[in-house]
Amino acid sequence: MATETLTLGKALNTGLRRALENDPKVVIMGEDVGKLGGVFRITDGLQKDFGDQRVIDTPLAESGIIGTAIGLAIRGYRPVCEIQFDGFVYPAYDQIVSQVAKMHYRSRGKLRIPMVIRIPFGGGIGAVEHHSESPEAYFAHTAGLKVVSCANPQDAYVMIQQAIASDDPIVFLEPKRRYWEKGPVDLDAPLSDAYPLHSARVVRPGTDVTLLAYGPMVRTCLDAATAAAEDGRELEVIDLRTISPLDLGVVYESVKRTGRAVVVHEAPSNLGLGSELAARITEQCFYSLESPVLRVTGFDIPYPAARVEEEFLPDLDRVLDAVDRTFGW
Fold first, then answer.
1. Which of helix, strand or coil describes residue 319?
2. Do residues 204 and 225 touch, judged by C-beta distance below 8 A?
3. 105-to-69, 72, 168, 312 alpha-carbon distances in Å
4. Which of 31, 101, 204, 237 has fewest C-beta within 10 Å?
5. Rounded to 5 degrees, what are φ and ψ at 13?
6. pTM value?
7. Any catalytic annotation for residue 104?
8. Beta strand pairing status for 78-82 and 146-149?
């Protein structure tokens, strides 16, 4: 069994390489993805090995990238589009919502759009305006799209291959602040045996409070659980992994045991994923709850300047404060 320690970014690179090797219909396209290897080097070396007809440097036009990919997908290809930064996706929003999400339904199932839209998302890297956003709620609200987010190198390696193999259009959110974090990756395990793409997972068992997170905040919640354990509290951490569709069975099972839930995400709280999770948990676990479902999120403001982003982003202290508040009811 070939298990290697890789960064999350390198795990994505390796997963993309496997997808290109396994299916000649897979093409990668985006700004600077070829010769440069992407601004975060996620596609590094791929154009050199697979050629510029399969790893394509596009013009700086997100709408054009997505529109071209739609045509390729209709013709049987599996395009993987890179949106260089989360804040650059909005020029392509019309294409994604009006065409990518609706083509299968509009054609009464005759057309499939097997494409992946990779978006580095979230903050924590000190970037300038338009380079740190959390746009997941826009896409999760859109029927016809699936939205997933990896949180560790193993999931990054497997999930990107699963997304490319899917016949559905998938928005693939990559936690850019975690690109350089390392973890073990099993490179030999068959994809058919991998954990299902649209399934949540308990990444740390506990008995006192359920922490729900995805993408960059999974690590923050794991750190909070480690700190809470020093005070005798056992926090259960669930990595949602799939934002749309939500996999809620494991969530309900956990909350019914712990009686308390805290949702953590970087996006603002207003109409964010935390709102939906709180509503669903309240509906299904009402008689098990010992306190209201609490949310730890970014604030309801435009993303702030880099010098103050650490005040905006949820951190260990804010998560632990919410845990404390769940015991005050």
1. helix
2. yes
3. 18, 18, 11, 39
4. 204
5. -60, -45
6. 0.96
7. no
8. unpaired
